[in-house]
Amino acid sequence: GYDNDITNGVYAGTISGGYGNRLTGGCQGTIGGGRYNCVTTAWSTIAGGCTNTASGYTSFVGGGRVNCATGGYSTASGGYNNKATGSRSAIGGGWINTASGYTATIAGGYTNCSTGNYTSVGGGLVNCATGQQSVVAGGYNNRATSNEAFVGAGYNSTASGIRSVVAGGYNNTASGYTSVVVGGCDNTASGNCSFVGGGKSNTASGYYSSILGGYSNTASSVGGNIHIIGSCITGASTNYTYVNNLCQTGGGISDCRVKNTIQPLEFGLDHIAQLQPVSWCWNGDSTCHKKYGFIAQNVQQAMSCVVTCNKLHRLGPDGTQILNGEEGEPLLEFEKDAVYASYVNAFKELKQENDALKDRVRVIEDILRRHNLI
User: Fold this and answer.
1) What letter does residue 282 receive in the DSSP assignment?
2) Which pTM does this prediction carry?
3) If residue 341 lies in a helix (H) or strand (E), which one and from where to where?
4) pLDDT for 11-44, tens place per residue?
5) pLDDT for 165-193, tens place per residue?
6) Whose CB among 25, 142, 214, 306 lies 3.0–4.6 Å from 40's, allowing a Cys bridge?
7) In 11-78, at which residue ranges do the beta strands (DSSP E only) sit?
8) CA–CA separation, 86 vs 105, rounded Å?
9) Alpha carbon of 284 to those of 58, 86, 237, 300, 320: distances in Å?
10) Distance in angstroms (rounded) separating the CA atoms of residues 291 and 284
């Protein structure tokens, strides 16, 4: 080589070749070749390339240009102007990437950053993993900002909830705890454990809520557990599934061969007559989306055995539902099929009464005819 220099006091340092390379500190540093490379700490290595720096303890630069491995045990394998500044961080290649978190990793790409501890960016452009153990696999301008968050691909997407996932698409956001957006565009899963499968401009803000896809849907109940299949649907009622233009093939399995303890239903006209149909809005629903049906307490008075306590849903202090809570009284629910099946018994009773009245009318008409009164 030519114009290479090992500073006095550097023990067992090696410069194998190249031009203008420097070993300035520590012991057993190594420069394999290249130009204007500099090793400043013990047991660090630059294999080659140009204007690279290995200043972290036992750091390594494989080649490329203007790369820096300044964290302890850090690695910059190649590329241009990459910086591995975190302890045990690594950059595989690409341009202008920065791995500053502990054990942070960037495989390649352009202007990516991996700043959280144990984070990883697979590639792409302008991606950033800042949450601890977060991952951005690729794409453009994606962000994984919370612990264990993941963005798979696409662009302009953010996974900001703990353990949240955006698999792809663009302008998508998963901000709820363990929330998921699979793809599409302009979708948001902000409720805890919420899910958006795809589509456009969908928002799942209620916890345990889901939107399969479609366009401009909102699942927003305070109580959560709302599911939407279709488009332009606003779901604001807890424990409901909303579907556009549902088409059902078949009526469901009801074969007696797979049933036991079959008994006639005891409820009929007298029980149905006690029910009071009502409309209502859920507490916490600012839109006051009208619902229709029966109140469980009213059903309990008429058919007590079909009403049960739902221990997963409890009454909150503000009159809204708490899902999977331990405080508050369990909320009441009732078996709707029992009410609907009771209509058949009620209709049968009405038919029997109607048939009896018809028989009486026929008898009366016969008497009137015999006396020439009709």
Assistant:
1) -
2) 0.72
3) helix 336-370
4) 888 999 999 999 998 788 999 999 999 999 999 9
5) 999 999 999 999 999 999 999 999 999 99
6) 25
7) 14-15, 22-23, 30-31, 38-39, 45-46, 53-54, 60-61, 68-69, 75-76
8) 9
9) 59, 47, 10, 25, 6
10) 14
